[in-house]
């Protein structure tokens, strides 16, 4: 081997003092005396025939674990967005799920993903790890996925599945997981009850003119009607500017409930139901159902739904499971979409979700000395 000059390569490094950093690297060229072929010296700083350093690529991987747009990452590290997309795909393929078993308890839900389609998501109810995310929510797709990736023995080990009252999934779940009990999510039960109460308030409010005290009483202080009567402030007097009056919260709600007997019955029945859901008291729930009378059509429709799904509500009262963890995951997924102004590519979207939730980066305190 003989020295045969050098080749100059401009290598992109991570920023130094917030300035773009380029390394002008001269690679030694060698020539074989026997065959006449040439080769270049290599360095661990950069891969062969590349212009982006390994440190920069690793920094891009680390930035992908944060809630940031790919264009902002590309700008920071002086690369193209296509380079960031390639690193996203490479990293996403390395963290594919193992499909080596199912947890005993699952939470299932759905969220809006790419475009306007709804996607199915399932997580471990105890560890809150993501089990799967499917691009669609059709029963046929759900059945095909679980049958292809998990054995019948694994599916029979699932003992409980927490879900809302979406009846679409019930038939598929009972087929796939024959030993699992369906558990109602108490968060959705409370939400359904208070939504019915709120709809009743709005319907009553529209019976009055906007410039009347009754309208303002129901319009601007709606939050107080969503609180239970016992949690209202009964001693401290507040100034309510829309009413130009000083009252306690309890007096304000009493005045609002006095506008309609049906609204009053709806208010107390709704909050009694909410209390039983929060306490997971099935006996109390049945007692409240027996006392429900003279309530609004909105709450009566919700009560009929509860009666139809009493078995799921009973299963909910026997444990502490809820869909709270999966709602938190859905919230983070929505934030990822919001930051990126939406995703068109399902593959990029699912890779970004896996990187966000599966790669844990240790947080370090600032170094002072």
From TrEMBL:
Residues 42-88 form the Transposase IS204/IS1001/IS1096/IS1165 helix-turn-helix domain. InterPro entries: Transpos_ISL3, Transposase_DDE, Transposase_HTH, Transposase_Znf. Residues 106-353 form the Transposase IS204/IS1001/IS1096/IS1165 DDE domain. Residues 4-35 form the Transposase IS204/IS1001/IS1096/IS1165 zinc-finger domain. Coiled coil: none annotated. This is Transposase. It comes from Levilactobacillus namurensis DSM 19117.
